[in-house]
Amino acid sequence: MPFGNTHNNFKLNYKVEDEFPDLSKHNNHMAKVLTKELYGKIRDRQTPSGYTLDDVIQTGVDNPGHPFIMTVGCVAGDEESYEVFKDLLDPIISDRHGGYKPTDKHVTDLNFENLKGGDDLDPAYVLSSRVRTGRSIKGFTLPPHNSRGERRGIEKLSVEALTSLDGEFKGKYYPLKSMTDAEQDQLINDHFLFDKPVSPLLTCAGMARDWPDGRGIMHNDNKTFLVWVNEEDHLRVISMQQGGNMREVFKRFCVGLKKIEEIFKKHGHGFMWNEHLGYILTCPSNLGTGLRGGVHVKLPKLSVHAKFDEILGRLRLQKRGTGGVDTASVGGVFDISNADRLGSSEVAQVQLVVDGVKLMVEMEKKLEKGEAIDSMIPAQK
Amino acid sequence: MANSFTRMISGRNTAVILASVGAGSLTSGYLLCDSTADAAERRKLYPPSADFPDLRKHNNCMAAALTPTIYGHLRDKTTSNEWTVDQCIQTGVDNPGHPFIKTVGMVAGDEESYELFAELFDPVIKDRHNGYDPRTMKHPTDLDASKITSGMFDERYVLSSRVRTGRSIRGLSLPPACSRSERREVERVCVTALSGLKGDLAGRYYSLGDMSDREQQHLIDEHLLFDKPVSPLLTASGMARDWPDARGIWHNNEKNFLLWINEEDHTRIISMEKGGNMKRVFERFCRGLKQVEHLIQERGWEFMWNDRLGYILTCPSNLGTGLRAGVHVRLPMLSRDPRFKKILENLRLQKRGTGGVDTAATGDTVDISNNDRLGKSEVELVQLVVDGVNYLIECEKRLERGQDIKIPSPIPQFRK
């Protein structure tokens, strides 16, 4: 909650063992790392804006875990959370991001020209291409913690920045709370509209407070560039289009991001970023690039091949249904995207998607002809 | 006092004493340790006007009462447990309202909330409790069940009888605000007290977290188990945090006296049985409550209560007696009569489906209970239900015989 350390100073009067949460039935990253000793060591800390350890972990305490997905179980309330609670967050980050060490440096590369190829994915198979990331605005606390005043401040700045864009980025902002029915229907039909979060993973972290105050969507006239304001993060930036020209999607993504960043910087509110964690976002799983680049691709034969999951693993890719995370695939069409976020650059991650999808489409074609694909299975990337 | 909380001495007892004499703003002024310099900076950068919630589409008691002026007075205050008005109203901001039910839209985090944020709570209480003014009126408490007359219903009509209320343990924060150790202390205090109950009240405790599958199934089959709250009215207030830690159910061996621990309130106490003996249900209710109170007092604890607001509970709608006394009653003809609604209204009764609040009536059986909670005593409210249900049964019998029925004159709101 905003404005200071509500309740934490009072809780310090109680013994550690009385306050320590019961994590015996829990299966998330936070529960694996947080011991009573660690809790006792850092529970009296708070960030300058008053975010506390209990705030960080509440979502993980309330949500013991998904049977199939290892959830993170904690969130940041502000940029400083990652520093003040590093004793908890560093091991979680390491666990979640393939052994990333506290001394590692993350490379940011948003030069779309460094991407090789990506403009020739077969549109008979690759139905659509999309890249998304998140950005947090320096000087404001994050969605789990911010007050209504701050959230509105973020919206105001964002609207100024976004409505000043021109060329292919020229567009309009739709605040959630004053949307007309016609606008709402249109945004739903375009698959742009985001809902109030219902997942308890999110609501228990306090991100849905005061909905829909301060929330909205901007999209360009061409409907290929989209920004969500104040959903799970301050900003979610999305570039997408039909077909397989991932190169064009990524170019628009990088150019658009740079333009937006310049405008925010001019107002004295650049994006939260540091050389260890890259872009700072609410959930530790989105640190680094915060980037998910993916395609909707038809792989009916490959997807039922015995080695499909192994191939994906080696290509450092993940599959989802076409409804997004936690959905099943429909008609052999899968959402294929990069699995990594931290420790490799944007260009590197999109490169993996481009190369990996190209290979998988070729495998699909081979399987259509009744040929074997064993010789095509790649080494671990 | 043989418990770890005696170590909490000065801060706790000061808070308890000050809360109970209503010196909320004094307390907060004295104990307000500014959290951080940064937080103070923030308050300056974002004055109350920047934070005032947008309530234009809202329809709850809080939204009707909250003005920018009141918010400006209250935003920067904190109780001695560091609870704020923003935390009180969050549930009402997040839940604009039910089209048919006017929800309250705010909760208390501790006893002191009702004092410190009285400028907002008082008009909300007045709105919800039919004009009861906490500034000028006194709430009567009366748990003497012997005063009830005609408390045995015709069992051809009344299938079951039930009385419930809630109690809060003074000195510990309420469910929206409590820390894990406070919640665990509520559990310890209650379970220790309940283990001292004897005779027909002797029973056992089932902790929600440690329950075996068999125990859980047993409690479900007996309709005794409560679920993790899913209603956003409750989850948005923070009451479901850390579930199922320190939550549980206690019931006596007869299964007609039951306590819920740390659900929406510190405790919910229920007395119930099949059939129409409301007098016996209320008698057991009062006896059980008195004994539990006595057992916690032996260990230096007490219930939150004052003469303005009666028993202090999390939701302002449950202040006063916190009491809902009701029956499941068959009224096939009366429930279809167009005058039924008006009869209930004048008798100050409400109907619900037999699944509880927000459910529809199935078949001919309805749940009938008192509308009011604050401004009338427990005995008065139960007598009102007894007299009212007897009247409804009389109407049903008259309709069966082809005779006409009358709408009774309305019962007055408060004693003068």
From TrEMBL, chain A:
Gene that this polypeptide is encoded by: ckma
Protein name per Swiss-Prot or TrEMBL: creatine kinase
Annotated Phosphagen kinase C-terminal domain residues: 125-367
GO biological process, one term: phosphocreatine biosynthetic process
GO terms of molecular function: ATP binding; creatine kinase activity
Sorted UniProt keywords: ATP-binding, Kinase, Nucleotide-binding, Transferase
Listed Pfam families: ATP-gua_Ptrans (PF00217), ATP-gua_PtransN (PF02807)
Residues annotated as domain Phosphagen kinase N-terminal: 11-98
Native source species: Gymnodraco acuticeps
UniProtKB/TrEMBL annotation, chain B:
Localization per Swiss-Prot or TrEMBL: Mitochondrion inner membrane
Membrane topology summary: Peripheral membrane protein
A GO cellular component annotation in the UniProt record: mitochondrial inner membrane
UniProt keyword terms in alphabetical order: ATP-binding, Kinase, Membrane, Mitochondrion, Mitochondrion inner membrane, Nucleotide-binding, Transferase, Transit peptide
SUPFAM superfamilies tied to this protein: Glutamine synthetase/guanido kinase, Guanido kinase N-terminal domain
Primary location: mitochondrion
MF term (GO), any: creatine kinase activity
Binding of ATP, residues: 160-164, 223, 268, 324-328, 352-357
Transmembrane domains' residue ranges: none
Gene Ontology process terms (BP): phosphocreatine biosynthetic process
Domain Phosphagen kinase N-terminal: 44-130
Cited InterPro entries: ATP-guanido_PTrfase, ATP-guanido_PTrfase_AS, ATP-guanido_PTrfase_cat, ATP-guanido_PTrfase_N, ATP-guanido_PTrfase_N_sf, Gln_synth/guanido_kin_cat_dom
Domain Phosphagen kinase C-terminal residue range list: 157-399
Listed EC numbers: 2.7.3.2
Record's keyword annotation contains ATP-binding: yes
Family: Belongs to the ATP:guanido phosphotransferase family.
Function, as annotated: Reversibly catalyzes the transfer of phosphate between ATP and various phosphogens (e.g. creatine phosphate). Creatine kinase isoenzymes play a central role in energy transduction in tissues with large, fluctuating energy demands, such as skeletal muscle, heart, brain and spermatozoa.
Protein name: Creatine kinase S-type, mitochondrial
Originating gene: LOC117559939
